[in-house]
Amino acid sequence: MNRIRSNRRVQIDESQEPKYDVAEDGAEGNGLRLRLSDINVTEDQEPFMGVKVRRRASLHRDYKGDYIDVASHPYLMKILQKQGDKQVVFADKVLKFTGSGKMKRRILLITDFAIYILDPETDALKRRISLAAVEKMCLSELSDNFFAIIIPTEYDILMASTRKTEIVTVLVEATKSASGEVEVAFSNSFEYQASAELTKEVQFEEVEGGVKTRILRK
Fold it and tell me: pTM of the predicted model, to two decimals?
C-alpha cells in the first residue's frame, strides 16, 4: 500500500504588518520593570553570512524590539514577574503552525533567559522554552517569512513573521550569554519535529512573484 503524503501550500501576505490590539491602561507597576535590550545590529553583525536572499525592506529596517508595548498588558507583566524575567529583547505577534497544520496567531516574547509563546485571545501562556534548550534555527535561503526553532529535548516550533530577520538576530545575541551562540542553518528544505511523534518537512521554491512553501508530513 502506497503511503500518501498530504501537501499543504501556505501563503503569507508579506505586504501587511500584523495588526495589534489597543494597549490597556494602567499596566505599569507590580514591582516589575522591563528593560529592552541595547542590541544595536549592523549589517555585518547579522547571522546571515551572505547566504540569505533578503527583502529590500528587511535590509533597511530599524529594530524596535517591543512591538506590542509589553508594559501595557498586565497579564504579560504578571507572567514575566512569576518567571523572574525582567529584560525583554523582543515582543510581537506571529503565526505559529500547529502539529495538525493549522495557523494560530500567537505572541512571541523573548527575554534574556527564555522564549514565551502566548495566546493573545485567552491571555494564556502556551509554552516557555529556556534559551539554553535551543540548539539551532532553520531558515530557507529565500525571501520568505518562515523560521523553525529546534529544541532537541522537547518538540520544535515553526513560525512565520515579517520581522524574521530581527527575531533571528535577537535570538543569536541572547543565546550567546545564556548557552553559547545558537546555530543558524540555511536550506531550502529542512525538517522539524512538529510534535513528539510527528516530523514534518518544509520545502521552499522560488517562483515568479515570490516563494512557494510546502509543509509535508514525513
Answer: 0.74
